[in-house]
Amino acid sequence: MITPHYTPEVQESPRKILLVSGDAGITRKIRLMLYSQYNVLETCSISEGMEIAHIRHPDLILCDAVVQDDSGYQFLITLRNDPILKPIPFILFSRPQMAANVRKGMNLGADDYLSGNFTSEELLKSIHSRISRFHHIRDTPAFVTKTLAIHDINPTAINERLSKTEAKILNMIARGMSSRDIASHKCISVRTVDNHRHNITKKLHLSGPNALVKFAIGYAGGMGR
Fold it and tell me: Would you put residue 92 in left (φ > 0), alpha (ψ -120 to 50) or beta?
């Protein structure tokens, strides 16, 4: 059987899928379904799943209803109560021969629920649909404003993620300075500035056109409070 191919949007790197399952066989099976199109992050526990989600900020979470240290339902509840991770699309799935509680999963905020022996086609269609919808919503002005409000309330926490040079460059960006302006001011190359901008964007889990500039403006507003 030929595995259907749903190509994500053109981008620098594949979308990240966080796969959480307490069954090694299922993890291996799903990894084979996804590896050619997505960057799959794996864990068997909710506690580690939350840690990975905060550090790597996946584009979607695919979670087993049964996990090593708790249930997928509890992971979903914990995630939806986290202001930073709450928007991430979340797909629950049940194992073969196990009763699926679709209503419970959807009521708790799952974006989809796959039952039993789902196929590669069903899985890929669901993932592609949820990621596409999420990124469409994420790029709207209302979502950007809400995201900035979440991040800029704690400038100290933001600074802890960045080096001193990166923090200074973030402030320069907030003041409207271009890469060329920053390079001239700090006596470094434009390429070096662009590398710093890339690192800042990655550390702050930002993406999309002008995301860093928008964030920098919100960050500067938080510093002035």
Answer: beta
> What is the pTM assigned to this prediction?
0.58
| 22-28 long-range contacts, CB within 8 A, separation 24+ | 22/64, 22/66, 22/67, 22/68, 23/64, 23/66, 23/95, 26/64, 26/95
Inter-residue contact 90 to 65 (CB < 8 Å): no
60-64 and 90-93 beta bridge pairing: parallel
What angle, rounded to 10 degrees, do the helices at 211-223 and 190-203 form? 70
How many other C-beta atoms can be found within 10 angstroms of the C-beta atom of residue 197? 19
Tokens coding 175: 């003041």
Cα-Cα-Cα-Cα dihedral sign, residues 193, 196, 198, 204: negative
Counting Cβ atoms within 10 Å, is residue 214 exposed (0-12), middle (13-18) or buried (19+)? middle
Could you tell me which residues are beta bridge partners of residue 40?
17
Identify the pLDDT of residue 68: 64
The mean pLDDT of the chain is 79
